[in-house]
Amino acid sequence: MKRNAMFIALAMVSLLANAETITGRYSSNLPFKKGEISISNKRTGKSTQLDKKGRFALRNVDIDHDTLVLFAANRNRTTFLPAKGCVEFIIKEEDDKVDVLQKRMVQEPAGEHGGQIYLKESLEKTGECMTLAAVNTRVPRSTVYTTFTGNTEPIYFVDNIEVAEIATLPLSEVAYVEIVRPSSPECAALGARGANGMIFVTTENKYRTENPAWNEPREYHVEIQIGGGK
């Protein structure tokens, strides 16, 4: 009994670790009333209804293993949609066809140096196309000079190799940037040399090689043909 309880507890921990909230929007060429369309979790049976704009949010979904169930009472139709790591669904139902745009969750890399991670998507929102310009816009640095050199530049690394600068590195080649503050243990261990912090850039080429899942599309369409009936 104790062993069974332990396995159950471990399974629950695993499920909770992958538990996410799936959001989405539903539209149809047929008008529908409140309560006619529902989205549920096949495993747990928990369901949610759409709001007036067809939006929904379903909590505590194991996005790696669970399946969503779309039930349209106005059509007497049930459609099964495996989550497959996706956290957003745009569902369009028309006649005997369901078109689903699934958007995968962007996995944030684990930093190796105890710093703050900034994905390329976040840096692109600055409107800058070069890495250093995007970093300086997204994370403005103070102008505190080091005691001995009067230098305000952090130490730069690209794929864990120290470089003189990253001003000419296109943001399009970057997967993410890790900003390590001067107050961190790693910088403190460098003394005056680490007084301005460190910036670690990981390129897409390196990250894709080490993480094959990064190559998977983050959004894709699934078209389901339905013959009618529940």
3D architecture notes:
With 230 residues, the chain is an alpha+beta fold. It has two domains: 2-106 and 215-225, Immunoglobulin-like (Sandwich); 116-210, Ferric Hydroxamate Uptake Protein, Chain A, domain 1, CATH 2.170.130. The chain is built from five helices and 14 strands. The chain has helices at residues 2-17, 120-124, 131-138, 185-188, 204-210, and strands spanning 19-28, 37-41, 47-49, 55-62, 67-72, 77-82, 86-94, 97-104, 116-119, 155-158, 161-163, 174-180, 198-203, 219-225. The protein has a five-stranded mixed beta sheet. The protein is elongated, with a radius of gyration of 24 Å. The chain starts with a helix and ends in a 5-residue tail after the last strand.
